[in-house]
Amino acid sequence: MKTISILVPTYNEEENIPLVYKRVVAVMEDRLPQYAFEVVFVDNASTDRSRELIQGLCAKDKRIKAIFNAKNFGYSRSHFYGLTQMTGDAVMLVHADLQNPPELIPQFIEKWEQGAKVIIGIKNKSRENGFVYFIRGIYYKLMKHMSEIEQIEHFTDFELLDKSFIQVLREIEDPVPYLRGIVSELGFGMEKIYYTQDKREHGKSYANFFKLYDFAMLGITSYSKTLMRMATFVGAGLGGACVLVALATFIKKLLDWDSFSAGTAAATIGIFFLGAIQIFFIGILGEYILSINSRVIKRPLVIEEQRINFEGKPNAGKNESIHAAE
User: Fold this and answer.
1) pTM higher than 0.90, yes or no?
2) How many Å from the N-terminal Cα to the C-terminal Cα in the chain?
3) Which of 108, 163, 240, 312 is most buried, judging by how many CB atoms fall within 10 Å of its CB?
4) How confident is the model over 201-223, as a mean pLDDT?
5) Which residues pair with 37 in a beta bridge?
6) What's the angle, vertex CA 310, arms to CA 45 and CA 111, rounded to 5?
């Protein structure tokens, strides 16, 4: 009997945890009884009752497992690490906020049984805030045109991955992985499922502007050279324009020496404009340097505090964790 591992990353999801458990188990028992399954909660140091609820589920149902991180290591690192710990024949990533409906799991498994190794969910509609959906759409389109690797629009890590691709993830030595880019670049035997994304079931999203900005810059600095090359082109273009303006000013002064005055306004505006361009691209350069710095330090993805209902040694591969406590 094949086993499906279902990964559910959590952070302060006390209201959603019982619901996601109920809906996932109902789908697997009622519609996919031919498969064994496990549901693995990876909790990123929640400060509400999330861990208490997960521990209760683990106690009453041995198919429910848990990995508790020692602190909040960020969404990207936590759920990437969680994927590398799964042992099933296929791994399904389901978000605890239930925006991506677990009822679609059978469709993912059907395509997997047909031979696909990576099946990704693409939201073609969303019931989230319209403005947020619009901004996300702009970002996806920018990434698609800026990246050297073909990026997938409206892909939000709702996916099923074959164990062969999970092994690929285990071999990646990246302390700040951008999973969407990795799947886009390395995903083989890929199929897509289109769906309508629901609203968050309960609670609030902790993805504020700064976290979204950080996540967006992670994607850009990991998969695009465009901005840095743009600095070169813009600098060359502005340099050429300045030479032309200077030459025109000099000729005008020679032809009309007594009455022509270049004035200080144009010079001041030009100085501030060039200064703004320089500061902007220095900031972009800083983002790339921060990305490089995060990677060369080679920190562990997460530090585990506890795991429940697992048997044997952690299946960490090269992304091995440090266990604060067993």
Assistant:
1) no
2) 30
3) 108
4) 63
5) 4
6) 90
Residue 133 buriedness (CB in 10 A; 0-12 / 13-18 / 19+): middle
Look at 83-97, 153-167, 276-290 and tell me which has the smallest mean pLDDT: 276-290
Encode burial over 24-42: b for 16+ CB neighbours within 10 A, e otherwise: bbebbeeebeebebbbbbb
Please count the other Cβ atoms lying within 10 Å of the Cβ belonging to residue 50: 23
- Give dist(CA 261, CA 247) in Å, integer: 14
Q: Measured at the alpha carbon of residue 42, what is the angle toward residues 10 and 46, in degrees to the nearest 5?
A: 45
Is the CB of residue 39 less than 8 Å from the CB of residue 32? no
Phi and psi angles of residue 43, each rounded to the nearest 5 degrees, phi first: -100, 130
pLDDT of residue 159: 92
Q: Is 106 exposed, middle or buried (0-12, 13-18, 19+ CB in 10 A)?
A: middle
Rg of the chain over all Cα atoms, to the nearest angstrom: 25
Percent of the chain with pLDDT over 90: 37
